[in-house]
């Protein structure tokens, strides 16, 4: 007859191995996305440089936005298809994804977590700017 202590030890060992298999190299790992840093500039010609960016979903994103123009500008992440003529900060995908309106020569750095995979837009909320073309593409990948 096998002593009870040996049986208990065996069961504990097996459970430990099963847990290790699940958590380790089981292929089901969901590694946290690497942080992403983006630098954007806004210009009075109603454009951004760069004109697009792509980040993985869930990534911590830090944006440094510099106003290279003489006018005020901002950087706001909104859903694709947002009406450029009426866009305001209230349209933000997440409230943190906004530089705030900044004056000529100013820089603002802000951070947010990349939303669900999909296509978004970066827009300037200063009236008239987004309709004039101050829009950039923002893609979030799986
Ligand atoms: Cu602008």
Can you walk through the features of this model?
The structure is a single chain. The chain has 142 residues and is of the alpha/beta class. It is 14% helix and 34% strand. The chain contains one helix and eight strands. The chain has one helix at 4-23; strands at residues 36-43, 47-49, 52-56, 60-67, 76-79, 107-113, 118-123, 135-141. The strands form two sheets. It has a four-stranded mixed β-sheet with strand order 2-1-4-6, with no helix packed on it. A four-stranded mixed β-sheet has the order 3-8-7-5, with no helix packed on it. Strand 1 and strand 2 (47-49) form a beta hairpin. It is globular, with a radius of gyration of 24 Å. Mean pLDDT is 87; it is low at 6-27. The structure holds copper (II) ion. Copper (II) ion is lined by residues 42, 73, 124, 126, 129, 134.
What's the helix and strand layout?
Layout: H1 4-23, E1 36-43, E2 47-49, E3 52-56, E4 60-67, E5 76-79, E6 107-113, E7 118-123, E8 135-141
Parallel strand pairs: 1-4, 3-8
Antiparallel strand pairs: 1-2, 4-6, 5-7, 7-8
Bound molecules: copper (II) ion (CU).
Copper (II) ion binds next to loops.
List descriptors.
142 residues, 4-stranded mixed beta sheet, alpha/beta, binds copper (II) ion
Short description:
The protein contains 1 helix and 8 strands. It has one helix spanning 4-23; strands at residues 36-43, 47-49, 52-56, 60-67, 76-79, 107-113, 118-123, 135-141.
